[in-house]
Amino acid sequence: MIPEVVNISEAKVHDRYGLEQLIFQKDTIIVEDRAYFDFALMLNRIKAENVFVTRIKSNTKYETIEELDLPENIDQNILKDEIIQLTSDKAIETGISEHKLRLVHIYKEDENKVIAIITNQLDWEYNTIADLYKKRWDIELFFKAIKQNLQVKTFWGTSENAVKSQIYVALITYLLLELIKRTIVKGSIAFSNLSEKIRFCLYHYLSLVH
What we know:
Elements: E1 29-31, H1 39-47, E2 51-55, E3 62-67, E4 78-86, H2 89-94, E5 101-108, E6 113-119, H3 126-134, H4 137-149, H5 160-183, H6 191-200
C-alpha cells in the first residue's frame, strides 16, 4: 500500500501506457489486470526475470502441455492448473511461444464466473498464484483511501502544474500518515480514522500512543 512508482498523465491516456518503463529489477512480482496482457511485454519480463501474474484474454490461442494435479476436497474454487504454450501467429512472431507458461482457472462464486490467470512462474502452489492476483485489488483500495480522505476530488487550480502539485501533496500526505500509522500509533487503526483525527486535532496536542 506504499507507492514506489508514480506517473501522472492526462486522463485520456490509458494506464497501460502511463509508464514508459514496465520492466523492473530481477525477482519483482508484477500483478496487473488484463489491459497489460501483451506478448512482447511478457517476453521482456521473462528475460528480465520478472514474475508476472495477470488475466489471459478469452480469445488467446494456446496448447496445453501438462495438466497439473489438484488435491481433492480442498480449494474447490480452483478448477484447473496447467502448463501451456501460446500458439497464435502473434505469439510465434514475438517469440513468447517458445516459453512455457502457467494457467490457473479460478471460479469466483461472488461473480459466478471463471477467470484464468496466466503467469511465468511454474513452481509455486496454485493458491499462491490465485492469492497474488487477489492482491491486485490493493491498488483500488489505495485509490479509494486517497480519494476519500485527501483533497483530490476538486482542484484549486486547473493548470497542469497546479493539478500535479495538488496530487503530489496528497501522495506525500498519504505517505506521512502511513508512516505515523505504522511506527507511532499503538494498536490497529484504520487509515480513514487516523486522517480524520489529525484533521480535527491539527492545532491541538494529540497522543497517538494509546
